[in-house]
Specification:
The chain is an alpha+beta fold and about 500 residues long. It folds into three domains: about 120 residues, no CATH class; about 250 residues, Fic-like fold; about 70 residues, no CATH class. It is about 55% helix and about 10% strand. The chain contains 20 helices and eleven strands. The strands form four sheets. A four-stranded mixed β-sheet has the order 1-2-4-3. It has a three-stranded mixed β-sheet with strand order 5-7-6, with helices on one face. Strand 6 and strand 7 form a beta hairpin. Helix 3 runs antiparallel to helix 17 and helix 4 packs antiparallel against helix 5. The two termini are about 55 Å apart.
Amino acid sequence: MQTQLQLRPIGNQWLKERYHLSHHVLTHCSYIGNNAAIELTSKGNVEQVYGPGYKIKKDEPLYHLEFSLKYDDLNLDFLRAVFEKMTTVEIEKYVAAAPGSKYTRKIGFLYEFLTARQIGLTRPVSGNYVNLLEEGKYISGQSIKNARWLINNNLLGTAAFCPVIRRTRELTDLLSQNIREKIVNLKENYPEELFKRAISYLYNKETRSSYEIEKEQPSPDRMQKFVALLIRAGMETAKEMLDKDRLIRLQNAIVDPRFAAIGFRDFQNYIGETLSTHLENIHYICPPPSIVASLMAGLQDAAIKTTGIPAGIRATLIAFGFVFIHPFEDGNGRLHRFLIHDTLVQDGMVPQGLIIPVSAHMLNHIKEYDHILEKYSQPLMRRIRFDKKENGEITVTNEHEIEGYYRYPDLTDHCVYLIRTLQATLAEDMPQELLFIQRYDEAKKELQRIVDMPDKLIGMMLTFLHQNKGIFPKRRREYFDKLTDDEIQQMQQAYRKIYEIE
């Protein structure tokens, strides 16, 4: 990369420096230099140098903004902050100078979309309708024609909640793989009865894992309620799945009755932990209560507007959107993971009555799961300002400055994470579970051949052998006083052979 002295910022990077928006994270930074170059930095963002031929007509904000729409990544939160630094008059003059330009029209549309302020048009814009999002660069939602700007609004949501998901090379590669087909192939490799038993087990495993991620041990009745919810997942329409009353019923079913919600929260909450020094380490401050209702309404609208996009993308948008809004005091994480399954079944990626146990994979790779959550929370924590009282109550003091972060998240990395998790669960976790059950059946038959004893004792013997990696623990000998040492030795050898233990 050329030295900084040779480079001049352009586009979003220029706007960031001009308006002192240093806390905003850009995924693509552009510069003008002598020679074209591109580099992926250690922070994960792209820095690209364009040659002298890319210089803009005027070194003014709106011309840099036009450059950013052409070459930089769309960042609605950043764009909103830039518009807040501009006046409506500036936008009006820019539009009036070139009312037929598609970028002029995009800027006018986005200004009104993000600020809720309307600009005056001295004459109507002209030209053909153009897509706001370029299909090759972004995941787009259902298109709505905007006659005022001659724009096809194909954003993923509304002004209340609108994520951006970039079509990176990695995401494009992941989307090319057919998960539904992999599920069908997996089913064909095992007997139908075995597969049914495995699915019943996986519903329970998914439930236990989801609670364990929250470091909770659910009571048997709450376990059964959660399993029942998972079995019925995907039966609602896109509009119904995020209906407020339904979410409250789901929350009430999975939490301790003392923390059952009667509505979305009307207080400020946060996620943190108390350190050994009795100080609290705050990981994430949830959206202020004043915007929770509109965020949830926006999430519901986004769920409807994204009907038909790839199921893994839509599941990310809905589930991670939900958990970052955190509308309840308790149960948000479990509902977030439930909504993944809910969406995958609703969209037909996963057949009704089957489950991909993503929570189990997340639990086994908890650092990766924590990292993707922190990918969203850490930039916010560098920007947010708040007061904290002695009783732990928090008040956000710069709500207007950080509101856009909650409303317009970039969920590209979260999509990559979830689709990779789904694929890894199908390729690794589910085959292992199916193989284990298949071997369990074989081992049970072999133990019964050695000694025809009650199922209860066979199950106990298999449990002890499994817990002790194929070695029968001598301290359990009292439970099998009717068996000879030779019979126990035969059972141990049979188990180790079936489970391929050296």
